[in-house]
Amino acid sequence: MGMSPHHPTPAPGQDGPGDRPDSVPPVDFTIDLTSQEMLRRSQVMAALGSDWDPVEVLRGEEAAYDLLYSGLDDEQQRVYEDLVAAGVLPRRGGGHAAA
Fold first, then answer.
1. Residue 53 to residues 24, 40, 44, 45, 46, Cα–Cα distance (Å)
2. Largest alpha-carbon pair distance within the chain?
3. For 32-57, what is each residue's pLDDT tens digit?
């Protein structure tokens, strides 16, 4: 004896959800979040302040990466080169981590 599904799908004409005369067709429902996104962006810029300099931030990030990969011992340099060769890390400077 086979098991029947808990919620069998009715055959056409057997009063399934789409066959009832009182069934309501699906409604297209959309929300325009444009104004909320503009508000979010203006709040982010206000939080950053008028003295925020994106170019200076990028320079700081580059300096931090240079510091991160500086002063590597031989084993660390080998691992760094392996990661660069594998495409995990971008090559920095002249092909060697900064000393």
1. 55, 19, 14, 11, 13
2. 79
3. 899 999 999 999 999 999 999 999 99
- Residue 98, exposed/middle/buried by CB under 10 A (0-12, 13-18, 19+)? middle
User: Using H for helix, E for strand and C for coil, what is the string for the chain?
Assistant: CCCCCCCCCCCCCCCCCCCCCCCCCCCCCCCCCHHHHHHHHHHHHHHHCCCCCHHHHHHHHHHHHHHHCCCCCHHHHHHHHHHHHCCCCCCCCCCCCCC
Q: Which two tokens stand for residue 37?
A: 């996104």
pTM to 2 decimal places: 0.44
Nearest to residue 69, comparing CAs of 56, 49, 88?
Answer: 88
